[in-house]
């Protein structure tokens, strides 16, 4: 049974349509991430689940209970929704110890005494902060404060955990670590989680499924692998991971192969897809790590190989980013081995690595 069902939810403010007819089901225990650029409506969606914002139309059900139904005039107040929410600016109460911060959250829900103490001990244990119960927030590192904030979100056993960019104020190294234990924590507790981020690395690492949003629309829902390997549109391809996105004309269509033309008579092979006609302009994408430079394998299809001049070579630690031009398109390739700019060499664009998008 789905734990969260959002049906035809829209949000309008004045003349501005912020969410367009969103529908989404989240399974019990699932970790789902709303991913998209700033202003695409992620927080508005999360706030609608939390009851902090009232949508203009649609219906939200959690665990079979209707929390919002515009047509039926139902809107359950946040405090009656039984959800744990943590924002980017998770402030712990500075004048209370860790223990008191959690106790206060329970107290609001009239959970006190031995039951409260047991829940607090359990929540602090979950985030590995049980030894710090007597400390004040000011005596903890940023990462520790953040774990306490998560414990505070979890302490009363919410049905859903709603997290809005909870890792964004940690430095890069701590964020990687925090990401790992957040995933682990969610697996251990099994609490259905909706996570908001504009960071695609975080989304790929954490999620069971990712919901990609663009301008108030859901544009793709899928596992991290599906989103990464089969982006539904050039927007998704561009937003998730790096991609070379280019425009080309469809020159020929064979059973399994499309031949795409670039300026200067360059021909690129791609897998055939439906909905594309010969003569049409299409968008296509290939990931930098799929391009093979300096290809000499005699078994490769020569039609996939092009002589190119290396325009630029940038060292980025574990890999080199190498730029070259084909027709009027500049491509970037990535590989571990350095190659000096200015050389002419072979670039192989494997047919299967090219992703063609049917015109919208
Ligand atoms: N109260 C409001 N009045 C007018 N416009 C609003 C209001 N709240 C949100 N918006 C607009 O709605 C759109 C979606 O906002 P939302 O905060 O949901 O985006 P987001 O994807 O969470 O962005 P970010 O990653 O920057 O937090 C934005 O264009 C925003 O400016």
UniProtKB/TrEMBL annotation:
SMART domains, A to Z: AAA
Membrane topology, record value: Peripheral membrane protein
Species whose genome carries this gene: Aquamicrobium lusatiense
SUPFAM superfamilies: MOP-like, P-loop containing nucleoside triphosphate hydrolases
GO CC terms in record: ATP-binding cassette (ABC) transporter complex
Chief place where the protein resides: membrane
Stated family: Belongs to the ABC transporter superfamily.
Subcellular location: Cell inner membrane
Domain ABC transporter: 4-240
Protein name: Iron(III) transport system ATP-binding protein
UniProt xrefs under InterPro entries: AAA+_ATPase, ABC_SmlMolc_Importer, ABC_transporter-like_ATP-bd, ABC_transporter-like_CS, Mo/tungstate-bd_C_term_dom, NA-bd_OB-fold, P-loop_NTPase, Transp-assoc_OB_typ2
Keywords associated with the record: ATP-binding, Nucleotide-binding, Transport
One annotated GO molecular function: ABC-type transporter activity
């Amino acid at each position: 049974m789905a734990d969260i069902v959002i049906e035809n939810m829209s949000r309008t403010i004045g003349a501005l349509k912020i969410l367009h007819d969103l529908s989404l089901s989240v399974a019990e225990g699932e970790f789902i991430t709303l991913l998209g650029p700033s202003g695409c409506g992620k927080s508005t969606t999360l706030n609608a689940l939390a009851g902090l914002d009232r949508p203009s139309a649609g219906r939200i059900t959690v665990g079979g209970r209707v929390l919002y139904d515009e047509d039926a005039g139902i809107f359950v107040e946040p405090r009656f929704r039984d959800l744990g929410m943590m924002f980017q600016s998770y402030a712990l109460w500075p004048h209370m110890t860790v223990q008191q911060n959690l106790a206060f959250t329970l107290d609001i829900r009239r959970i006190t005494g031995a039951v409260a103490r047991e829940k607090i001990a359990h929540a602090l244990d979950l985030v590995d902060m049980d030894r710090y119960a007597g400390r004040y927030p000011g005596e903890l590192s940023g990462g520790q404060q953040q774990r306490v904030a998560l414990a505070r979100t979890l302490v009363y056993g919410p049905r859903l955990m709603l997290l809005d960019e909870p890792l964004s104020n940690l430095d890069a190294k701590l964020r990687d670590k925090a990401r790992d234990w957040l995933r682990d924590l969610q697996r251990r507790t099994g609490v259905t989680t909706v996570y908001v981020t504009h960071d695609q690395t975080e989304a790929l690492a954490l999620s069971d499924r990712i919901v990609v949003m663009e301008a108030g629309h859901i544009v793709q829902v899928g596992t991290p692998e599906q989103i990464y390997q089969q982006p539904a549109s050039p927007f998704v391809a561009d937003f998730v991971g790096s991609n070379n996105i280019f425009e080309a004309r469809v020159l020929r269509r064979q059973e399994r192969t499309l031949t795409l033309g670039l300026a200067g008579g360059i021909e690129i092979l791609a897998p055939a897809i439906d909905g594309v006609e010969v003569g049409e302009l299409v968008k296509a994408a290939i990931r930098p790590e799929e391009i093979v430079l300096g290809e000499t394998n005699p078994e490769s299809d020569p039609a996939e190989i092009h002589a190119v001049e290396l325009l630029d070579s940038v060292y980025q630690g574990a890999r080199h980013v190498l730029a070259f031009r084909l027709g009027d398109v500049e491509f970037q390739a990535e590989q571990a081995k350095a190659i000096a700019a200015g050389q002419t060499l072979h670039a192989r664009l494997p047919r299967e690595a090219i992703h063609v998008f049917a015109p919208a």
